[in-house]
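ESCALATION

Customer reports they have been waiting on this structure for their group meeting. Please prioritize. Original submission:
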Amino acid sequence: MELPSYTIPSATRIGHIHLKVTDIQKSLDFYLGLLGFELVTMYGKDAAFISAGGYHHHIGLNTWQSKGGKPAPKNTAGLFHTAILLPTRRDLAVLLQRLIDAKYPLTGAADHGVSEAIYLDDPDENGVELYWDRPKAEWPVNSDGSIMMYTRQLDVEGLLAEI
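Update from on-call: job pushed to the front of the queue and completed.
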């Protein structure tokens, strides 16, 4: 049976991500203590739901199948990274400065034309992208009108000058 054409509604958003982790406390230390998310609730002692701004949860963390385990191998299928969209460039700069002050290792930083991003791994080696989107009117476009995304060196000094 052939399905009719369908386009998902433009107001669709990714609501949350749920991660298997090996240690709830280490994950909470990272997501709450370092990145600044808020604990919404614990689900027993093996799961936590966290958010920004009181949403029911942006990130779920659990050890139901992974407690005490090892990170997933990098060369297998699975999550590449969780992308956390920040409202402003200044917010990204503040988080970058927190990471620098905490001596937390980054795995990368990039200007993608449509956004600026920094990359790191959480305690379970799940990739995390922290980024902000430039206003849509500033997104670079190709001659055919399609969005031109690229990966260029992030102007870290310019970003940190926001704070």
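Sent to customer with the following note: The two ends are 57 Å apart (CA to CA).
Escalation resolved.
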